[in-house]
Structures are given as C-alpha cells and as structure tokens.
C-alpha cells in the first residue's frame, strides 16, 4: 500500500476514531474506490452529530450523521459525496473526488477528539463508498491533461513533499489584456469563451507578451500593467497579465505544484489562438517572475517553438537542481534569458531566486545576490517613493523584486544594462569581459534577444546597477596619471562630460597617491555621456595638512565598455584639494 494511502487512512482514523487496520483491508490502492468502515460514538438521547470529512472528496463535501441514518455495528450505509462522485450532496460539488486535504482532516480530527471525550454509550458504523476519478499519484483534467506527483515532482531531495496541483477551477487563471487601445483598463479574455477574445482589442497580427507573477503575488498588481505600458512606448503588442492569485496565495509547496496547471492554462490559451486565429508561437514572449518563470517553462514544454521566455529571478526552492521536466530550461523556447537578483542561499540569506544558470543568457546584476538599495532601514524602505504598499513589499523581498524593476526600466533604456561576459562577479569587477568583445555584449532585459552571440550553451554575464530608479548604469574604465606633490594621502574623483550630459563625481582611488603613477578603476555611471568632451578631476587630503599640498591630473584615458572606444584628455598644472581641475582633449 502506498505511503499516500497510508497517510490518508491515518487521518481518516483520527477523524472518526477508527482502527486503522479495519480500514486497510477495504481500500483499493489503484483506483481509490473504497468502502471505508468507520465507528462513531454518540451520547445517549443525542439527536444529531456531524462528521465533517471535507477534503476526503473535495473541499465542501460533508456527511451529517443523525439518529435516522446511524445503524448498529455490522450494517452499512452508502453515502455518495458530491456531484462528481454520485448524486447525493450535490449542492456544492467538490473540485475533484478523492483530493486530499490533510490539514482539514487534522482539524476535523481535533474536533472529533473533543466529542469523544464525552461519555460513549453507543457505537455505530457508517460505510462510505468513495468513488474517485483520482488515482493515488495522478490527477486528470479534461482540457489540460494529467498531472502526477511521482518522481521528479516529489520524493526527491529537492522536492520532499508530495502535492498534486489544484484544479483549474480552483486556481482560476485569468488573462487580463492591455493594448495601446486600452492601456489603463484591462479586458478579461478567456480561451474557454472565445468571443471574449474576438470582441476584445486583441490583434492577431501583433506580438503577444504574457506577464506572469509569482508566489503570493497577483496579476492586478501595478508592476505588471506598468510593464505593459512601458512596452507600448516602444512597440505595438498584445500585453496579457496572467493572474493566478487563487493558486499562488497558499502554502509554498502547493503553489509550487499549482504552476503546472498555470503553465498548462497558458499553453491552452496559445493553442486556442493557433487553432482559431492562425496565430504563430513565434509571436509569443512569456515573462515570468519567481514561480511564474517555471510556469512559463511548463507552457514551453507543451507548445513547441515559443519565441522567447524571460525568467525574472526564477524561484529556487523546489526548482533548483531538479530535472528539466520540473523547471525552466533552454529547450522550452527558442530563446530563454534569465535575470538573477536574489540567488543567495535560502539559509541563512533567505534567498528566493536560483543561482543556477538555466537560460541561453543568464544575467547576474551586482553579482546576483545583494542588490544596491535593498539594505535601507525599515522606515526609509517602507515609506518609499512608490508608496507604503510597494515599500513594504520591497522590505520583505527587495532583492527578489528587483528583477522585474530592472526589466521594466530596460524597456525604455535602450543602451543601458550591458552585460559583460565573465565566469564570476569577482572576475568581472577585476575587468574580465571589459570591453565587450568584437561580437558585442548583450543587454540585460527587453533587448537581450538582439544579441548576435546566442548559442546553445548557457552564457553568464555580469553588470552593475544603481540603487534606485533609474537603475541602468554605463560602464567605463578610467585611468588617471597624477602630477604634483610627491606623496599625498587621500582620494580623488572624476566626472565625465559629454554630448548627452555629465555624470556625478566617482571615486577612482583612495590611499597614498604618488606623482607620476597611473591609477585605474571601473566606474558605472548613471548616463551614457555620448561623445566625451571633458573630464573634471577633484581630490581631497581627508585631513588638515599645514603644507597645503597640490595635486593634479596630468592625463586621463577613458574607455567605453560597450564599444571599447578610448578618449584621452590632458590636464595643466595642479590644484589644491576640493578645487576642480578640467581636462580637455589632447
């Protein structure tokens, strides 16, 4: 007998006070059709008692035991539970006969234990005939097919707890359409009722982008519709926010399995477009955050040749290290790109995202673990520019949420978020991958698919971002040769001025500065300065120095990370601390 069935019998025994061995002999492990004999004691003269077996056969089914249907031991009564199991008690049919809800059974057991504490004078027997459409390790739904809880979906180190996904009706996946015609108010469309698509603003000649949220989130959160509106600024698309909040706001292990039905629902929607509108999967781009990224993978396993899947900090628990059947993989779309922002270990960092590279291009902004701006104190972070609700979300899961903020910013920042090829973040900070090779560098986010260096082998890229909007940064290498006093302790900064504006001051070196020495550093600045015109140099002694030393920048060489272009600037003389020196083209 399977472990699942044994657990089921234990819970039933707790609820009804029944000997487990009696139950075991009457269960058919293969089909879940069973006579389950249960005993129940009633107080003398008691006219009614209720045994709530919700969860044995759906969410709402229950049987009331009264003196009229209680019979002496040795007799039996058949009770059919819910519309899908028979004709009785069909007012609120369960989601699927046989679906287990151990937590509810334990709650019922506690209630029954309280009842059994009373004086027991009579023992009665009820036989429940449970007719199931669910096998011990599989559940099937007409539109979507069957789902198993066998390996690799459970029973592994990565997924120790066995859960079957909820029904499509319970998860209640919703498709919320935004277009340039209705950028602010969604139109709810569904593949089950095709006229909702026909009479909406959906246009079969456009690319369609599905945006899917993750655990505990919902499809009507502002970030999804804001991302749609950002896209309308650069292209004409059907933007569909997918809401599965009824399936995401539950226990983590259950939600991790519910995404299988979510992915199947998106696939069914795309199939409907293909069959009825001649739509091509080459026009489909799915963007999934957290668990939503792996739901996109499920869709890609069902619909071949989807153009693109973008994973925004794909969920790590229950997915990292699993076979590709369970998680997103490069085989799920023609192009898969991934942004990792919360890939620290779950313990002790509470990292929710994967560090494992699972796409064609995997981007690790700021190293992929700790995002700048996510270590603010609780007050400054909750009372944020985006409001109290968004600030609270940021405080709880700031690193995890940064991924979709970077992507949204990148839609309108066509030159920012350049990723540099490097095996690790440390090597990136040391200069590996800088400047971009002759083939160029990919841009993290919306324009990653324009990169010409995509291969079948996963590639890693690193970059740095800002700590707040706008997050895009532009990487330069600065090399400055000093002149003046022979030795000064302190630091010096530079600012870049160009055709697109100027940057703030960035520190190049701190320590003992020596004349005639060249100091180099990589700086990630807030704007693409365009064509460089001048460089401004500023230094500080850090302490009061009665000798009033002077220092100057004899020369500065600036190299652009994107194209490798180098610009040389020359300075004249020296300046005292905190006095700007301007360097011009040599």
Automatic annotation (TrEMBL):
It is found in: Cell projection, Neuron projection; Secreted; Zymogen granule membrane. One of its GO terms (cellular component) is zymogen granule membrane. Its EC number is 3.1.1.3. Disulfide bonds join 570-586. Pathway: Glycerolipid metabolism; triacylglycerol degradation; Glycolipid metabolism; Lipid metabolism. One of its GO terms (biological process) is lipid catabolic process. The keyword tRNA processing does not apply. It is a peripheral membrane protein. Residues 474-586 form the PLAT domain. Pfam families: Lipase, PLAT. GO terms for molecular function: galactolipase activity; lipoprotein lipase activity; metal ion binding. It catalyses: 1,2-dioctanoyl-3-O-beta-D-galactosyl-sn-glycerol + H2O = octanoyl-3-(beta-D-galactosyl)-sn-glycerol + octanoate + H(+); 1,2-didecanoylglycerol + H2O = decanoylglycerol + decanoate + H(+); a 1,2-diacyl-3-O-(beta-D-galactosyl)-sn-glycerol + 2 H2O = 3-beta-D-galactosyl-sn-glycerol + 2 a fatty acid + 2 H(+); 1-beta-D-galactosyl-2,3-didodecanoyl-sn-glycerol + H2O = 1-beta-D-galactosyl-dodecanoyl-sn-glycerol + dodecanoate + H(+). Keywords: Calcium, Cell projection, Cytoplasmic vesicle, Disulfide bond, Glycoprotein, Hydrolase, Lipid degradation, Lipid metabolism, Membrane, Metal-binding, Secreted. The keyword Ubl conjugation does not apply. Belongs to the AB hydrolase superfamily. Lipase family. PANTHER family: LIPASE, PANCREATIC LIPASE-RELATED PROTEIN 2. This is Triacylglycerol lipase. It comes from Pleurodeles waltl (Iberian ribbed newt).
């Amino acid at each position: 007998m399977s472990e699942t069935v044994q657990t089921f019998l234990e819970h039933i025994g707790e609820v009804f006070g029944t000997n487990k061995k009696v139950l075991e002999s009457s269960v058919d492990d293969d089909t879940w059709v069973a006579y389950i004999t249960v005993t129940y004691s009633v107080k003398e003269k008691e006219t009614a008692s209720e045994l709530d077996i919700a969860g044995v056969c759906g969410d709402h089914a229950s049987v009331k035991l009264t003196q009229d249907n209680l019979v002496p031991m040795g007799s039996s009564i058949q009770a059919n539970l819910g519309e899908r199991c028979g004709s009785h008690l069909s007012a609120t049919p369960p989601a699927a006969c046989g679906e287990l809800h151990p937590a509810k059974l334990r709650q019922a057991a506690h209630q029954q234990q309280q009842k059994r504490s009373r004086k027991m004078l009579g023992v009665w027997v009820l036989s429940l005939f449970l007719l199931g459409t669910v096998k011990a390790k599989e559940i099937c739904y007409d539109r979507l097919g069957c789902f198993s809880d066998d390996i690799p979906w459970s029973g592994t180190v990565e997924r120790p707890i066995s859960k079957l996904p909820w029904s499509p009706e319970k998860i209640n996946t919703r498709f919320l359409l935004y277009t340039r015609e209705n950028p602010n108010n969604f139109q709810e469309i569904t593949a089950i009722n095709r006229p909702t698509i026909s009479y909406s603003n959906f246009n079969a000649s456009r690319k369609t982008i599905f945006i899917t949220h993750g655990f505990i989130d919902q499809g009507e959160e502002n970030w999804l519709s804001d991302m749609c509106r950002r896209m309308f600024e650069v292209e004409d698309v059907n933007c569909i926010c997918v809401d599965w909040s009824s399936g995401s706001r539950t226990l983590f292990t259950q939600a991790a399995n519910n995404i299988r039905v979510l992915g199947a629902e998106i696939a069914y929607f795309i199939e409907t477009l293909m069959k009825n509108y001649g739509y091509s999967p080459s026009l489909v781009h799915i963007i999934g955050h957290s668990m939503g990224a792996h739901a996109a993978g499920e869709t890609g396993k069902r619909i071949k040749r989807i153009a693109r899947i973008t994973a925004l900090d794909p969920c790590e628990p229950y997915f990292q290290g699993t076979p590709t059947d369970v998680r997103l993989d490069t085989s799920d779309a023609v192009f898969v790109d991934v942004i990792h922002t919360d890939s620290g270990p779950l313990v002790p960092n509470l990292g929710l995202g994967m560090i494992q590279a699972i796409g064609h291009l995997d981007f690790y902004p700021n190293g992929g673990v700790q995002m700048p701006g996510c270590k603010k104190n609780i007050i400054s972070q909750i009372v944020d520019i985006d409001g109290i609700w968004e600030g609270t979300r940021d405080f709880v899961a700031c690193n995890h949420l940064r991924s979709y903020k970077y992507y949204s910013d990148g839609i309108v920042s066509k030159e920012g978020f350049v990723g540099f090829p490097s095996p690790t973040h440390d090597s990136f900070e040391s200069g590996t991958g800088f400047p971009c090779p002759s083939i160029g560098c990919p841009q993290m986010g919306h324009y990653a698919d324009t990169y010409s260096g995509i291969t079948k082998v996963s590639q890693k890229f690193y970059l740095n971002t800002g700590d707040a909007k706008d997050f895009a940064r532009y990487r330069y290498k600065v090399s400055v040769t000093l002149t003046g006093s022979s030795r000064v302790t302190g630091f010096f900064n530079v600012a870049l001025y160009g055709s697109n504006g100027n940057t703030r001051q960035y520190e190049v070196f701190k320590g003992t500065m020596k004349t005639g020495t060249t100091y180099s550093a990589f700086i990630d600045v807030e704007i693409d300065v365009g064509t460089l015109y001048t460089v401004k140099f500023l230094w500080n002694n850090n302490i009061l120095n009665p000798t009033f030393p002077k220092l100057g920048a004899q020369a500065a060489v600036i190299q652009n990370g994107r194209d490798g272009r180098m610009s040389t600037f020359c300075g004249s003389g020296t300046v005292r601390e905190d006095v700007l020196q301007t360097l011009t083209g040599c």
